[in-house]
Structure formats: structure tokens, C-alpha cells
Specification:
Blueprint (H helix, E strand, L loop, with lengths): L2 H9 L3 E3 L1 H9 L4 H9 L2 E6 L7 E7 L5 E9 L4 E8 L6 E2 L3 E2 L1
């Protein structure tokens, strides 16, 4: 998966957000603008090519306040829609430099 496809879909407002992602965002006090900002200059840190119904990936990025955000995105190539599967503020006890699982 290419992060550029996700960014292009977001900029064209071709986004679906799962109910799970909405709940997780609310629990971590993340606004949609903060989530979208975090992937604009984010990077893919894990790839899940066998996920169904679409391949997905874990993206690390920073919100406007430079706080880390992890988000899992799927990309539907047929419709060119980005799907926000889940999102959370990573726990520092579980991550090295926010990018590598401990």
C-alpha cells in the first residue's frame, strides 16, 4: 500500500470511518482534523497486505500539537476510498520511538 493513495483519497473527501474508529478516537480525545493531519506527513510503520476486505496499514504521525497518533487505514483500490479502521494515541510503554513494538 502506498500512503500517497490514502492522502489523495482524504484530500478528495473519499473517506469512510468505521464505528470502531469513531469510538477509539473519542476515547483518546482525537478530532478528525488531528487524525487527518497526522497522516499528511506520517509514515507506514506496519503493513497488513492480507487484511480483508482490503489490505491495510498502520500509520504513525503527529497531530498539530506534535503528539503521536497511530491510525490503521485500509484502501479500496476499486473505489479509491480510504477507510479509517481504528485510531489511538500510542502507549509509550508499548512502543520504541512510536514506531517499533516492544
Amino acid at each position: 500500500m502506498d500512503i500517497t493513495d490514502l492522502i489523495n483519497a482524504i484530500q478528495a473527501d473519499r473517506i469512510n470511518i468505521t464505528q470502531h474508529a469513531r469510538r477509539e478516537a473519542k476515547e483518546d480525545d482525537l478530532l478528525l482534523d488531528e487524525i487527518l493531519h497526522s497522516i499528511q506527513n506520517g509514515e507506514i510503520i506496519e503493513d497488513y497486505p492480507t487484511d480483508t476486505p482490503y489490505p491495510s496499514c498502520l500509520i504513525y504521525g503527529l497531530d498539530p500539537a506534535d503528539a503521536p497518533v497511530h491510525s490503521v487505514w485500509a484502501y479500496a483500490e476499486d473505489s479509491r476510498i480510504a477507510v479509517l479502521v481504528t485510531v489511538y494515541r500510542p502507549n509509550p510503554a508499548r512502543w520504541i520511538d512510536w514506531k517499533i513494538r516492544k
